[in-house]
């Protein structure tokens, strides 16, 4: 018994080799970044502070009492400089590398530069002042007290159409635009990806076309189609909105699905080529089955976007609930409750569509 105790005492203090059971391997501590690099970053922050001071248009200043004297500095450039120093101090204590710290400093500098050029801080201050005014309180009270009778029992302004009929028009526009836009987007995605495209020239040309389609926002498309179609016996609102949503859907589906096609497993494609399949047969057998789950998911996502976008298209006078929302916003002196009812209903419809899309994804995917 005494010999066993002696052996245990003899082995006390002997370190087990790394990797043996019962030992915990500690991660090596990250080395401190070089101090000279951080001093250079502080100089960059000081140069940015000097630039913002020199180009400032706001005249507000901060006074810094030091006991024997009082210093002053421009308010927002000084606050921005302190934020930059705070970011560098945080990066130093977390032992962040110089390049990562420079990236964080660049984000702060670019944010301050962009905000100062659009007078972001001044606009926020004005909004906060307006929130305390009596007129704004009246608007907010109207928004949070929706007029449900208007939503269910009233007609569209200046017509005999019921309000709920505009929701039906909005839903129909979203369905038509989703079906047509996603189908065309699928074809363009197949033609744009090098995996399924006939040749490189076709792929590059379709990619350029997709870029042009995505570069024009949906509201601009609606304005263009409304001006092109003009006034007809049936009106141009719904058709212009559907065409604008179709172009919007084509840009989204062609972009996202094209990237999914680029990442397809090359194994089935190589097998199809080895079996002597032509381009259409290879795309139908090897590419489409692989990207069809992504295509269904993107189509459901686009359908949700169409419900939201149809409300935004009301600013150009298209049909649907967006047009009525635009008209009620135009008479804001007496339409707070009506706008609140439309917005509440819009939130409810979008949530229902989102839940329906989630259910469909679970069943199909």
TrEMBL record:
The chain crosses the membrane at residues 35-54, 74-93, 100-121, 167-191, 212-230, 236-257, 309-327, 339-360. GO terms for biological process: transmembrane transport. The keyword Membrane applies. Gene3D superfamilies: MetI-like. PROSITE patterns: ABC_TM1. Residues 167-357 form the ABC transmembrane type-1 domain. This is ABC transporter permease subunit. Its main location: membrane. Residues 16-26 have a biased composition (Low complexity). It is found in: Cell membrane. Belongs to the binding-protein-dependent transport system permease family. Pfam families: BPD_transp_1. Residues 1-10 have a biased composition (Basic and acidic residues).
